């Protein structure tokens, strides 16, 4: 799914030139990052993080690469990160990938961050907190990108969730507002002006889930100019 995001070729080309670092947060079995590496992004610059170690192990089993996978997979809960970072807590040195065991080690050093089907698990406030935490991990450099896909709505509001969970759906209008606000709080209004947010809504999975209502997925990217 990650490769169908319209910013994917830009991310891939930057990765191939070197000196970038990529994180898939909520990578599950790591299919997207393995595809990224297959497409040419240097594996030694790619991290996959999930809450659950068993998903990472199942990924190794599925792909048969436990003894030779060059991607650094590790477990962390993104909500263990603080929502703000200052120059004292931002890393200035990029850690050796094999030593990375927690998200906190990647504060301020990631060029590319992807989240697939993660934001839509949460309510509105938690989605804001998640975005703020991703911003603490991102490099403050032109070309740095956070991108992803998750369920959204044509008009923002709560998703009609079959299991009764509190899941918020952003729209193409509300999603850029969230990111502008997060960057303004982290770095000030002037910096937030340098952020370009792209969104695209696609109607998907109606057949797969035999859904009665259309299901809208938000494909998006946030780029520092
Ligand atoms: C619905 S799956 C999406 C998997 C994959 N990224 C995709 O696009 O299909 C969400 C993933 O996020 C992980 N996750 C959920 N909460 C998390 C958290 N707080 N920190 C890190 N990962 C989390 C889950 O374990 C799960 O693997």
UniProtKB/TrEMBL annotation:
A GO MF label: transferase activity
InterPro entries cross-referenced by the UniProt entry: Meroterpenoid_MTases, Methyltransf_25, SAM-dependent_MTases_sf
Keywords linked to the UniProt accession: S-adenosyl-L-methionine, Transferase
Record-annotated Methyltransferase domain positions: 23-110
Pathway: Secondary metabolite biosynthesis
Xref: Gene3D superfamilies: Vaccinia Virus protein VP39
Record Pfam families: Methyltransf_25
The UniProt record lists the keyword Endoplasmic reticulum: no
UniProt xrefs under PANTHER family: METHYLTRANSFERASE AUSD
Family: Belongs to the class I-like SAM-binding methyltransferase superfamily.
The protein's name: Methyltransferase domain-containing protein
Organism: Pycnoporus cinnabarinus
Lineage: Eukaryota, Fungi, Dikarya, Basidiomycota, Agaricomycotina
């Amino acid at each position: 799914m990650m490769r169908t995001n319209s910013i994917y070729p830009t991310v891939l080309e930057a990765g191939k030139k070197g000196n970038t670092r990529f994180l898939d947060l909520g990578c599950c079995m790591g299919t997207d990052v393995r595809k990224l590496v297959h497409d040419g992004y240097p594996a030694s610059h790619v991290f996959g993080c999930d809450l659950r170690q068993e998903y990472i192990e199942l990924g190794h089993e599925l792909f048969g690469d436990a003894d030779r996978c060059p991607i650094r997979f590790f477990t962390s809960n993104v909500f263990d990160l603080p929502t703000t970072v200052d120059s004292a807590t931002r890393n200035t040195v990029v850690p050796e990938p094999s030593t990375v065991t927690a998200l906190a080690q990647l504060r301020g050093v990631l060029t590319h961050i992807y989240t697939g089907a993660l934001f839509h698990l949460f309510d509105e406030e938690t989605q804001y907190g998640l975005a703020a935490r991703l911003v603490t991990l991102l490099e403050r450099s032109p070309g740095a990108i956070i991108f992803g896909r998750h369920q959204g709505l044509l008009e923002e509001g709560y998703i009609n969730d079959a299991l009764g969970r509190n899941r918020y759906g952003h729209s193409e209008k509300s999603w850029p507002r969230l990111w502008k606000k997060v960057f303004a709080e982290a770095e000030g209004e002037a910096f937030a002006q340098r952020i370009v947010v792209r969104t695209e809504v696609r109607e998907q999975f109606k057949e797969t889930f035999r859904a009665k209502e259309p299901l809208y997925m938000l494909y998006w990217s946030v780029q520092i100019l």
